[in-house]
Amino acid sequence: MQKYKGFSLIELLISFLLLATLLLGIDALQINSMRAASENYYFVVAQQQMSVIQERLSMLNHDEINTFISTWNVQNQNALPDGRGIVRRKPDRGVSIYWGKGDEQNCKTGSRSEGCLQVIFE
Length: 122
Hints:
By secondary structure, the protein is an alpha+beta fold. It is 57% helix and 12% strand. It has one domain (10-120). The longest helix has 51 residues, at 9-59.
């Protein structure tokens, strides 16, 4: 009786199945990390835009504010997907930035929910 050296077809198929499962898992990790990096990027851009409007509101006089707000909203549209900003003066003064699917109804003050950032001035 002869002894054969090497791998059987079943062993090769099982090893390829394990390798494919491992590669799919690594792919899923990469996709999730890219999504998280994108969300973090937009949040940082929104924070920067929020900082810009807060500084400018404190420096500009009343006549210049409306012009700057429209310029700021153009910047929001260019920097964020579907970016838009709102400056509230009454009853509670504050600034909100929304992007993507974010809207006023699901955005809570100080939260980092997807697509919104709000600051209320005291």
